[in-house]
Recover the amino acids of this structure.
């Protein structure tokens, strides 16, 4: 989507200028090609030393250079996590005395723990340096939140972290999301490592991204990785903000960021019948067999919640499906099924058999029934259910794709595909740009999105008149 020639060169030139300006602290010590944690110089606590700068990516000709500088250690060294109230109070004072935006990140233990709580919070602010906070031994981080109340927070993929930050008492009043900004600016690769390398010339290691962050004590290499995640976020923010301004998209981004702030502490939507999302459930035929999926799913969920373990680590979905299909009646038959061979799973054999017994004892009127689905059916069913609506959807999609390409945007960031499906399935009785815009806004579309597509969608929603003979 991005014209990666001139645009990339301009941004990389801007990145190089960023590192040589005197009003913005350049990147500091620790940029080496040595092994991680090996330091070339003493820490730069004053933020004013001579610093390594990546090579000018445009110095070798018209194509940007492919080399980058490995980022192996934070400029002031890897900080020890804050774990006590006294340490937190000192950090609160440091952050309050800092200046400019604050870079924020959080690490969870997805795939290991039942909850999505934060097990480490990382912050970096000019004049305060980098701070790692362990929220587990602390009551909450509300004092830290209060110190940053008037500060813009810079996060990458903010929607992934806002809920767990709110759980420990931290909620931004203003934010800048570098991942979302990069999407709006038209970058194809929007991961933190990709953007840092492309725009700033530094390469980040991401091999700890899926680690079990509930581990204690956290290994030094993990802490370094976590600190580096916030090391250059504000630099990225400055470059991306300038690019959005250049493209005339700054107001679009502001609307998106405001929506993220508004939803920061909103509880996650509870899905009805969550057991129906069991991977492979499409292979389970009949209400009686589905009742076994349901019983095993809730039995597993109870064990997972009690252990604070990810449900898939207690019993894989594939094992639930296998047991639902074959309905084993005793321990020997159960443990012979795929997924039931592990020691911890075998120890819970009675739990799984009791769940299957309970499903077997259900009366017919207690079996699960398919609930009516709110909204339109899956798109692949439209041609069969309502060919006219299917044609409407196709016309609307063409408008979205063409408009997204014209503005160098991913179509899903121009407008939610769900909004377009709902509009095409049940358009307003009177189709005008105003009614189309009102409908999209009712779904949650932003003002800038409606402004870009409402007129064109209104033009293609009505069925085209037959061609004149």
């Amino acid at each position: 989507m991005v014209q990666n020639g001139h645009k990339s060169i301009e941004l990389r030139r801007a990145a190089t200028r960023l590192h040589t300006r005197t009003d913005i602290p350049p990147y500091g010590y620790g940029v080496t090609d040595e092994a991680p944690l090996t330091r070339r110089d003493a820490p730069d606590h004053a933020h004013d030393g001579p610093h390594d700068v990546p090579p000018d990516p445009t110095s070798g000709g018209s194509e940007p250079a492919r080399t980058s500088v490995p980022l192996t250690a934070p400029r002031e060294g890897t900080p020890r996590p804050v774990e006590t109230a006294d340490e937190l109070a000192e950090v609160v004072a440091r952050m309050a005395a800092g200046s400019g935006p604050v870079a924020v990140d959080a690490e969870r233990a997805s795939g290991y723990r039942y909850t999505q709580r934060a097990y480490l919070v990382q912050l970096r602010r000019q004049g305060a340096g980098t701070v790692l906070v362990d929220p587990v031994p602390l009551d909450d981080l509300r004092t830290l939140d209060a110190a940053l109340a008037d500060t813009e927070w810079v996060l990458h993929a903010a929607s992934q972290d806002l809920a767990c930050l709110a759980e420990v008492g931290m909620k931004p009043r203003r934010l800048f999301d570098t991942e979302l900004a990069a999407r709006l600016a038209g970058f194809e690769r929007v991961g933190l490592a990709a953007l840092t390398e492309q725009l700033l010339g530094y390469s980040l290691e991401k091999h700890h991204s899926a680690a079990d962050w509930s581990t204690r004590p956290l290994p030094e290499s993990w802490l370094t990785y976590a600190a580096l995640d916030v090391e250059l976020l504000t630099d990225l923010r400055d470059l991306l903000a300038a690019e959005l301004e250049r493209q005339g998209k700054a107001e679009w981004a502001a609307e998106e960021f405001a929506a993220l702030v508004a939803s920061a502490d909103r509880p996650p939507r509870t899905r009805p019948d969550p057991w129906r999302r069991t991977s492979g459930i499409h292979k389970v035929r009949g209400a009686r067999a589905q009742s076994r999926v349901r019983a095993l799913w809730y039995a597993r969920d109870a064990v997972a919640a009690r252990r604070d373990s990810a449900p898939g680590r207690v019993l894989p979905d594939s094992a639930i499906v296998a047991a639902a299909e074959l309905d084993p009646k005793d321990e020997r038959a159960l443990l012979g099924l795929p997924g039931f061979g592990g020691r911890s799973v075998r120890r819970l054999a009675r739990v799984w058999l009791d769940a299957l017994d309970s499903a077997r004892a259900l009366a017919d009127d207690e079996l699960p029934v398919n609930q009516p689905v709110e909204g339109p059916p899956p798109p692949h069913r439209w041609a069969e259910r309502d060919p006219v609506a299917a044609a409407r959807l196709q016309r609307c999609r063409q408008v979205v794709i063409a408009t997204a390409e014209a503005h160098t945007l991913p179509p899903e960031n121009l407008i939610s595909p769900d909004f377009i499906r709902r509009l095409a399935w049940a358009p307003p009785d009177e189709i005008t740009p105003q009614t189309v815009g009102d409908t999209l806004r009712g779904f949650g579309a932003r003002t800038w999105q409606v402004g870009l597509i409402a007129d064109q969608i209104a033009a293609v929603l009505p069925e085209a008149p037959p061609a004149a003979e």
Q: What stands out?
A: The longest strand covers residues 99-107. DSSP finds 21 helices and seven strands in the chain. The two ends are 41 Å apart (CA to CA).
